[in-house]
Write a structure and sequence with these properties.
Blueprint: E1 8-9, E2 14-19, E3 22-27, H1 29-35, E4 38-43, E5 49-50, E6 55-61, E7 65-69, E8 74-79, H2 82-85, H3 89-92, E9 101-105, H4 108-113, H5 117-125
Antiparallel strand pairs: 1-2, 2-3, 3-9, 4-6, 5-8, 6-7, 8-9
Length: 126
């Protein structure tokens, strides 16, 4: 399982890459492997403010649909438009080209509450 050390993780299998007051958000390598082949990504609209742990969209795979949840409260400022034509980027590059949204987060303490790679690995391994 690939878990980049520089990212923060939620127990709901989302990751956040912090860049100043912006966070790139996606689902983890573990989550995409559990979903299987991803065929569609449905995300709330840009400029919408979403609270931490609130659903911000869904990911449709061949056999299932899964909700995705905000790891940080904030305003969605950009959607990864590449996923419209190429949703399987989440399968092939979940921490790079497969990011889902960019968020202007509103509470730095929520960043500190997220898990590091080791903490997330413990959640996955149970």
């Amino acid at each position: 399982m690939n878990l980049p050390e520089e990212l923060k993780y939620s127990k709901e299998h989302q990751w956040a890459r912090i860049d100043g007051d912006i966070a790139y958000v996606g689902i983890t390598d573990f989550a995409q492997s559990q979903l299987g082949d991803i065929v569609y990504v449905d995300v709330e609209k840009v400029d919408e403010v979403v609270a931490k742990d609130e659903e911000f969209g869904s990911i449709e795979a061949v056999k299932t649909v899964s909700d995705v949840f905000m790891p940080l409260s904030g305003e969605i400022i950009e959607l990864n438009e590449k996923l419209d034509d190429d949703p399987e980027l989440i399968n092939t590059d979940p921490y790079g080209e497969g990011w889902i949204i960019k968020v202007k987060y509103s509470d730095i303490s929520e960043v500190e509450d997220l898990l590091d790679a080791k903490g997330y690995q413990e959640v996955v391994e149970g």
